[in-house]
Amino acid sequence: MELRQLEYFVAVVEEANFTRAAERVHVAQPGVSAQIRRLERELGQELLDRSGRTVRPTAAGEAVLPHARAALAAVAAARGAVDELAGLVRGHVAVGMVTAGPTGTVADMLAGFHAEHPGVGISLAEDTSERLLAALREGRIDVALVGLAGPPPPGVSVQVLVDEPFVAAAPPGDPLAAHDAVTLQALCARELIALPRGTGLRTALDTACARAGLTPRVAFEASDPNVLARLSARGLGVAVLPTTVAAAHATELRSVTITRPGLRGRIALAWRSDGPASSAAAALIGHARLTLPGLAPAQTTDARSMSETSAPDSSSRRNS
């Protein structure tokens, strides 16, 4: 059994395609296929189901996958330990960012890291928070900027950068705009405009509704909160937005406090609790924690400190 066979196997599983996996590992596709076939013959089991349009791991492949990832991570850690001993920081780091996240802030952070460590390759990908956290836990990325509706999942530590309430936003002519606050129940009676499932904002909304026995009527979805605001401004529904986004569209939209319960969301820097896989990843995490603006740099995986919804707001003068 060779490390390259494990590397190719993991790449095919994650890409669900031999061609994309070959491009990822910079090897011709027949070479990838041949090495995986050799691994299967050695183990005496087929690891991949090649019968469908996408390649999927078999039951044997699912059993082998975590061990293959662990072996590759151990090798990367060994190389990182040697580099650290020699005072070197090199290799590659993979960064994830929630779609429509603070692109400029992340770009500045990565530019600063590149200036300090020019020998480290950097890749950046956008996705939903749910998929980014899964990739982080599986070791496919080293650090991520994600949206959180509650505590981080097991095995993930975070540094909260932004913590703000969500509001309902509607144009001035909408009946909702005449109110200072709206209950979650009343909000669910309206057609809503929200981020897609898997995002921190949508998770906060869906979780709060489920706890209250409500079903939100989401008529429009978009991955950019600013698009949600523009759709609402054109009378297509009530947008559920972070406070800062709603404030940026104050000339077009009226922000209404959501109560019983209120909703909060967080943007956080996230990394694996058991530590980075390489010295390059460790350097990136340290650099990001020092340079990204935000709240106090405290790690937490405590659900009590990161509740999914805030306490009901009883201070508003008029409720819808």
Question: Topology as H/E string?
Answer: HHHEEHEHEHEEEHEHEHEHEEHE
Structural class: alpha/beta
Detail the poorly predicted runs.
Answer: 296-320
Query: What is the terminal-to-terminal distance?
Result: 65 Å
CATH C-level class of the largest domain: Alpha Beta
The proportion of residues forming helix, as a percent range, comes to 40-55%
CATH topology of the largest domain: D-Maltodextrin-Binding Protein, domain 2
What count of structural domains? 2
Chain-averaged pLDDT: 86
Structure summary, number of beta strands: 13
Tell me about this structure.
The chain has 320 residues and is an alpha/beta fold. The protein has 2 domains: 3-85, Winged helix-like DNA-binding domain superfamily/Winged helix DNA-binding domain (Arc Repressor Mutant, subunit A), CATH 1.10.10.10; 89-320, 3-Layer(aba) Sandwich (D-Maltodextrin-Binding Protein, domain 2), CATH 3.40.190.290. Helices cover 41% and strands 24% of the residues. The chain contains 11 helices and 13 strands. Strands 3, 4, 5, 6, 7, 8, 9, 10, 11, 12 and 13 form an 11-stranded mixed sheet that branches. Strands 1-2 form a two-stranded antiparallel sheet. Helix 5 links the parallel strand 3 and strand 4 (120-127). The longest helix is centred in the N-terminal third of the chain and has 27 residues, at 59-85. The termini are far apart. Residues 296-320 have low confidence and may be disordered.
